[in-house]
Every structure is written in C-alpha cells, then in structure tokens.
Amino acid sequence: MRQQALLTVTIAAIAALSACGNTSNADVKRALKDVNVIDESNLNEVMLNAADPNEAVDYFARTSAQNPERIELKRGLAKSLTRAGKPVQASAVWAEIVNSPEATNDDRVAYADALIRANEWSKAKAVLDSIPPTHETYDRYRLEAMVADANKQWSKADSFYETALGLTTQPGGVLNNWGFSKLSRGDFASAERLFAEALTYDPNNFTIKNNLVLARAAQRKYDLPLIQMTQEEQAQLLYTAALTAIKQGDVTIGRGLLEDAVETSPRHFEQAARALEALNKTVSKG
C-alpha cells in the first residue's frame, strides 16, 4: 500500500512536469529526487519503529556510511543500537552526534540514556548537567531521577520523579522506577503504593506485579494482591513471595507458598519444586 501511494506521487509529479512544455531534464531529476526523499523518510520511520532492531542497525549503518553528513541517519543508527541492546555502541554514536553543530538537547538526553544503559553513570550525570535547566522533558527528568537514585540522593530523586510524572500521560514506567527506589531504601509501604498505582496504567506488566509482591512480602504481607494475573504469573508471584518469606525467617509460610506455586503452575514449575525440595532437606537435617 505504501509503495502504491509513493508510485502515485511519482507519477503525479512527472505528469505535472510533463504538462509544462518548457520543463528541462534538470526539473524532472529534481522532482524525482524530492520523491526519493519522501520515500526514504518513510522507510527510516518504518525501520525505527517496526523492523527487527538488528536489521535496522544494518540499514542505518549502511545508509549513514553512504551519507556521513546527514545527522538524522546517525540518530537512527544510535536509536536502533539501543533497541538492539547495544548501549555501548549506541553511546559512541550519540557522542559523535552531540559533538555536531546540529546537535539538540534531545540528542544529549538520548546520549545520557545510552550511557546509563551502558552503566556509565558519572558520564551520564555530566551530560545531563550540560543540558540547560529550561529543557524540561519527561525523558530528561526520568534520567535525572535515576542518576540521583544511583548516587543515593533521595530527596533529589523524589523531586525528579515527581516532576517526570507531571510531564507524561503514560506514567507506569516512572512510577515503577520510583517504587523500586523506595524499595531499595527500605520504604516498603511507599513502594507498594507506587507499584499499585503503576499497575493501573500498565496492568499487564509482570515486572511491576513482581515488584508489588516483593514490596508487600517485605512487610510480611504474603497473600497475593487482587490484581489481574494469569495462572502462570500467579505461580511465579507465589514463588517470589515464598523466597522473601524464607529469607525473612518465615520458613513455614515460605514452604506453603512454594507448595502453592508448584500446584498452581499450568506446567511443572521446576524452580519452585527445586526450592521446595532443598528446603525440605534442610529442615529434615536440622
């Protein structure tokens, strides 16, 4: 369908030029070049959003090498490398981009994101510090909060998380990050509240469900919350609660939760079965 539309544009452009008696070959070439730019822009968008990440990397690497002066192709390469799980390579490309006179503050934010993914926290902080405070975007404050978390600057982190929440219509991810921050500080009640709120925006996200169970179990609330879950997810969440209970010394409760996990799983839950067997052996020896 997209190719048909582009073919229609091409024919229309040529027909319009042909209707003019004084049209030169240069005019025709110029029109075709404009159509090619439209075609390439659409292809770039498709590769960024729909293609296999590694195919996108190959496409943008090849096209960028052929057109090294075009910064949007480098951006495509950097974004594709990030999607492909290659943050080190992505950060190297973003470093080239931010040193270009065409670089924007959004490029610098994306560079900081790649550095965080590559575990380069101090470099990421330096990049974020170089961005003017007037550049107020969700991504910028989400990353600022993560860096503050890494440096255990809790009040700063809370402030940045709160600001990020006000700048997005899809706050599930940042609520989950904020909840995990509270969990790591030992503020389990606040973590539980944030994870529960995150699930209202992203009810199918298993990571958030698991984090919610962790926060509750840390408060010795071992019953599963009333949330949407599949049978397999229920078994996994029971397993999470069981391990937390055992670590906190609630061995009998933990054993019961492991038994429930094995029984609940739609197929044999090997991890839970092994943990239950090991627990029973330990208790019998004791």
From TrEMBL:
InterPro entries per record: TPR-like_helical_dom_sf, TPR_rpt
Record keywords: Signal, TPR repeat
Annotated signal peptide: 1-26
TPR repeats mapped onto the chain: 172-205
Protein name according to UniProt: Uncharacterized protein
Superkingdom of this protein's organism: Bacteria
A Pfam family of this chain: TPR_16
